[in-house]
Amino acid sequence: ELLHAVFGTAAAAAGAAALNQWWERRADALMRRTKMRPIPAGRMPPLQALALGVGLSIFGVIYLAIVCNALSAALTAITIAIYIFAYTPLKRASTANTAVGAIPGAIPPMIGWAAARGSIGAGAWSLFAIIFLWQLPHFFAIAWMYREDYSRAGFRMISSDDRSGERSASQSVFFCILLLVIAGLPAFLGITTLVYLAAELVLGGLFVAVAMRFLRMRTAGAARSLFIASIAYLPLLLAALVLTKS
Prior knowledge:
Elements: H1 2-23, H2 25-30, H3 46-67, H4 70-90, H5 97-106, H6 108-117, H7 122-145, H8 147-153, H9 166-182, H10 185-188, H11 194-217, H12 220-243
Helix pairs in contact: 1-3, 1-4, 1-6, 3-4, 4-5, 4-6, 5-7, 6-7, 7-9, 7-12, 9-11, 11-12
């Protein structure tokens, strides 16, 4: 069931990514960070990307419905819908797009939970909360590093009117601290042990420290350090969760 859930979710995620790149193909061509993606680089025609995105998205949802269960398929469909029809257009309308985009980004653990258990419990919601909060400092760092790119493409990010970086950095610190607290939930829910809680506090404390360095320095290097720290934090936290599962 785990492999089936991973396969179906991966197919749907690939489809959603293709649809997003089809939708933003003109903006991607204006950004140094994204101009080499398949469509703006000319490696894939837009219509082909659209067909691939629709096909993979539908396949992923149907596969999960048949092989796993209806709940995991429904959660996958909701993830795709929010990502494509809410987050993607909102990037040009509101700086709230990052928070909205973090919702579909945090649902995949719930899909796996639903595929395995056929329901959504408190443990699934705790994983959702952890992934949701983790994404905010992660993407705030990216948005500030590439703020000129995003502005050139017409995207409204938290960094759009934040040349000093104070807003991006202060919110990164806030959400890292909140994550430090929320990431302890699995231990209190009985999903894992106190060993996980100790590991989580160490990892979360280091993450907060890097975010505070970004707030203090507000340089591209400090933002990149926060981005790298976020990349290291999540797999280490999840590894601790798996290894200490009760």
